[in-house]
Specification:
There is one protein chain. This protein is an alpha/beta fold and about 525 residues long. The chain folds into three domains: about 290 residues, FAD/NAD(P)-binding domain (3-Layer(bba) Sandwich), CATH 3.50.50.60; about 120 residues, FAD/NAD(P)-binding domain, CATH 3.50.50; about 80 residues, no CATH class. About 30% of the residues lie in helices and about 15% in strands. The protein has 15 helices and 21 strands. The strands form five sheets. Strands 1, 2, 3, 4, 5, 6, 17, 18 and 19 form a nine-stranded mixed beta sheet that branches. The protein has a five-stranded parallel beta sheet with strand order 7-16-8-9-12. A hairpin with a 2-residue loop joins strand 17 and strand 18. Helix 1 runs parallel beside helix 13 and helix 13 runs parallel beside helix 15. The protein is globular, with a radius of gyration of 23 Å. The mean pLDDT is about 95. The structure holds flavin-adenine dinucleotide and NADP nicotinamide-adenine-dinucleotide phosphate. The site of NADP nicotinamide-adenine-dinucleotide phosphate (NAP) has 25 residues, from helix 5.
Length: about 525
């Protein structure tokens, strides 16, 4: 008899809801979490300026209608402390902590093919068994820290966006370097620029950033609360798991040239990631994509006073939205400040770090503080950090040439192991809350099905998996996504196979497929 029906790994948004959902169904469930508290992403990433880039009205749980009505988001895009307070509130409200073991990292998962149960090993050496395991380990939870020569010689302070000190850092009057200009870097740079004595930004690839147009949302929130269930249903059926001004975007070719530009202008003024949905085929049609990209480039030139700096900030080497776009609040304006300098690493690569600062090209930039905002081993990193085995088979070996899953939910050869927002599901291309809730509910229903039928195991069928892998790769190849060296492609991790990781055809389509699989007696899954 296993110690638990289910072990869930991770107590972020996904793990917490998985615990709630399984508890509701009467499964004995234990959550193991490496961190000392709940929150996942929002526990770890406390850098200045950290906030969501999906609107809070959408980036929140829908499973608890009373919570939906009671909780008031203060801003269109809530800041990290507010989101963490929300996660904690949910954990307390549903008394979730009693089934969570904190400071406990899962290091290995070993499947017993005869007993049909997993042995879960943790970093304290303890082992426990579970009939099922749900990996809610996060898509952006394994930080990437490229090692720069001489880093240990630096006599100043170093900080990393993904584990910023909980008491904050006073950067007033300091000379600060920020390495990395993805979403974390952008938010940090914008927040600290007014306070520091000097800020030097080390940029390898310029991002495309759209304005957030953040604001308080008292009236908007009240309007949505009046029909939250219908609102959520539309999000679940949408492409990105969140709605864009409630309309279906037009195909680029259906618009006259002036109308296309006007649409871009309208989206730009609305602000946020809906910009990338201006045209339904923005990531398929290179002409549409270039128009949308050029629109942003023009805004950069308009905003940044120094033409040379503006040019360095202008992305040209990849299609817009093929790397994750950034949502900013005054990012480009930062470069009009006298205390901010930009180093273009394509011209002057970082050669080393010294006791005094960062050497890029021939110049030593003297600083007191270095902030690393260098990203994550996305989507597969957390799962592959665990030694997952079934006899001689290991997940790491199986995924060496890229992940292989059925629906992003299971991987053949590893029965009774589910992933929430795993590779080859929409996950990071969507409002993660929509995708998390969908997976959690699908997994809970599948486990109830297994229990009702008296089965001991559920496993992805190899042919179904092969088909799904081909489908996800083929659909990605129809888009412009592979034309960018992005973390969606694994391109940011040295040695990682370049394979497009998420499912590209949208949340609504994906839901229809997975709903269909479930009602057709879990077609493509084997039970025993
Ligand atoms: P996580 O929040 O990553 O939680 C996973 C948990 O698993 C962590 O607590 C981790 O410690 C734990 N864990 C991992 N491995 C192990 C192990 N082996 N043993 C034990 N515990 C383990 N998405 C959006 O949709 N909108 C946004 O605005 C947005 N903003 C983001 C901002 C930042 C700074 C980052 C980094 C990501 C953002 N994301 C956003 C993506 C975000 O990760 C998801 O929205 C969501 O928070 C993921 O929740 P999760 O529970 O799946 O994973
Ligand atoms: P990221 O987008 O991967 O950005 C990492 C940055 O570091 C990039 O600019 C990268 O350059 C640079 N970099 C990496 N290695 C480097 C090296 N050796 N030398 C110089 N530069 C290097 O990571 P992130 O900013 O943490 O964001 C990851 C994802 O988390 C986002 O895309 C988003 O999904 C989510 N997120 C969201 C928000 C939000 O607004 N809500 C905030 C933070 C994060 P290259 O581009 O050249 O690789």
């Amino acid at each position: 008899m296993a110690d638990h029906d289910v072990v869930v790994i991770g107590a972020g948004f996904a793990g917490l809801y998985q615990l709630y959902a399984l508890r509701e169904l009467g499964f004995d469930t234990k959550v193991l979490e490496a961190a000392p508290d709940v929150g996942g992403t929002w526990y770890h990433n406390r850098y200045p300026g950290a906030r969501c880039d999906i609107e809070s009205i959408e980036y929140s749980y829908s499973f608890d209608p009373e919570l939906e009505q009671e909780w008031d988001w203060s801003e269109r895009y809530a800041a990290q402390p507010e989101i963490l307070a929300y996660v904690r509130h949910v954990a307390d409200r549903h008394d979730l902590r009693r089934d969570i073991e904190f400071d406990t990292r899962v290091t290995a998962l070993d499947f017993d093919d005869t007993a049909n149960e997993w042995t879960v090993t943790t970093d304290d050496g303890a082992r426990r068994t579970a009939r099922f395991v749900v990996a809610a380990t996060g898509c952006l939870s394994v930080p990437l820290h490229p090692r720069f020569e001489g880093e240990d010689e630096f006599t100043g302070a170093t900080y990393r966006t993904w584990n910023w000190p909980h008491d904050g850092v006073d950067l007033t009057g300091k000379r600060v370097a920020v390495i990395g200009t993805g979403s974390s870097g952008l938010q940090t740079i914008t927040a600290i620029a007014p306070d520091v004595a000097a800020l030097t930004v080390f940029q390898r690839t310029p991002p495309y950033a759209v304005p957030a147009r953040n604001r308080t949302i008292t009236d908007e929130l009240a309007a949505v609360k009046a029909h939250y269930p219908e609102f959520r249903e539309l999000s679940r059926l949408s492409r990105g798991g969140a709605q864009c001004a409630g309309d279906e975007p037009p195909f680029f070719d259906d618009l006259a040239a002036d109308d296309a530009s006007a649409e871009l202008g309208r989206r730009w003024l609305d602000g946020g990631l809906c910009y990338q949905q201006t045209f339904r085929d923005l990531l398929q049609d290179p002409v549409a994509n270039e128009l949308a990209a050029e629109y942003v480039r023009t805004r950069i030139r308009e905003t940044v006073h120094d033409p040379e700096v503006a040019e360095k900030l202008t992305p040209r080497s990849y299609p817009i939205a093929a790397k994750r776009m950034c949502v900013d609040t005054g990012y480009y304006e930062v470069y009009n400040r006298d205390n901010v300098a930009l180093v273009d690493l394509t011209e002057d690569p970082i050669r080393r770090i010294t006791a005094r600062g960062v050497v890029a090209g021939e110049t030593e930039h003297e600083v007191d503080v270095i902030v690393f905002a260098t990203g994550f081993d996305a989507m597969t990193g957390a799962l592959e950090a665990i030694d997952v085995r079934n006899g001689d088979r290991t997940l790491r070996a199986k995924w060496a040439d890229g992940p292989r899953t059925y629906l992003g939910l299971m991987s053949a050869g590893f029965p009774n192991l589910f992933t929430v927002t795993g590779p080859q599901s929409p996950s990071v291309l969507s409002n993660m809350m929509t995708s998390i809730e969908y997976h959690v509910e699908w997994i809970a229903s599948a486990l109830a099905h297994v229990r009702e039928r008296g089965f001991a195991r559920i496993e992805a069928d190899v042919d179904a998996e092969d088909n799904w892998v081909n489908t996800t790769n083929d659909t990605a190849d129809l888009t412009l996504f592979p034309n960018a060296a992005s973390w969606y492609m694994g391109a940011n991790v040295p040695g990682k196979k370049r394979v497009f990781l998420p499912f590209v055809a949208g949340v609504g389509t994906y839901k229809q497929i997975c709903d269909g699989v479930a009602v057709s007696h879990y077609h493509g899954f084997e039970f025993a």
